[in-house]
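User: Quick sanity check before I run a bigger batch. Here is a single chain. Can you write out its predicted 3D structure?
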Amino acid sequence: MVQICDRMSLVYFISGLMYEAPDNETIYLIEALKERGIKSSRESWDDPQVDWSKPDLCIHRNSPYPLEPKKFLEWNKKLETISSVWNSYKVTEWNHNKRYLLDLHEAGIPIPPTILIEQDAKEPLSFYLEEKNWNEIILKPTITAGSIGLMRVNAESIKADEHFQMINKKGITQDIPDAGTYTIPPCDTLVQQYLPEIVTAGEVSLIYFGGEYSHSVIKRVKSGDFRAHPLWGAKVEPHKASRIERTVADSSLELAGDFVHYARVDLLNKESGPVIIEVELIEPWLFFDYFPDTVNTYADHIASFFI
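Assistant: Done. Predicted structure follows.
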């Protein structure tokens, strides 16, 4: 049953002037909220013409924050003084940098074998891999989105160190097919052992609304690629999450530091069990096209804010 709000309500979905990818999911949400008597629109956080004191609730959708992470966080913190924000600044601050994966590891939640190398490292990549018996690795910026800057590479190759230096000291510019060109500044670097399950088994994504599990999909990489993202040609299919997948994903959300109104948790299934690849609590793809009724699930949770 659709919940109809009995007072004027306004929601802003937070986007960014630089964001160029298609965004049907926000359109679906705007229509679903309209059916509930809630006005909403997509607004850019970096547009100086927007009056952010007007909305009752602001919800992150596609900023894209990795282009200017420090500026975005400062803006986000100020926004929370004049409006309600989902997810909260506390959650966003924790989740915007993938070093949160080390928090998961310390809490006993499985992740791939991972090294974090601080920005402006003085040593070459080989120095940090001396005691690791890793043939292939994944290099990724700790602040990124849409798989920008990710590389699968031989651990001992010149190419590996060159890419590491780009992430760690210079920044990365990358074209995303049909979605624009983006430059992310230098940041800390994650080095992970490559797990072949990303190709052989696929990456599972579990979606949550209002702290409750909603639905899940499995993403199978394009032939010759390793990036399990639709922007890079990954095939997406509905998936029925197992009990152990849900248990691992649930446990990751407990570390967010505040209530999580929406989430996507990505994991790989190894023989030893699931390992978490990413916990996306800022602007996740929600895969409404594969489970259309879940638009209403999320819209109902948003509407509950006004009741």
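DSSP finds nine helices and 15 strands in the chain.

User: Great, the batch can go ahead then.
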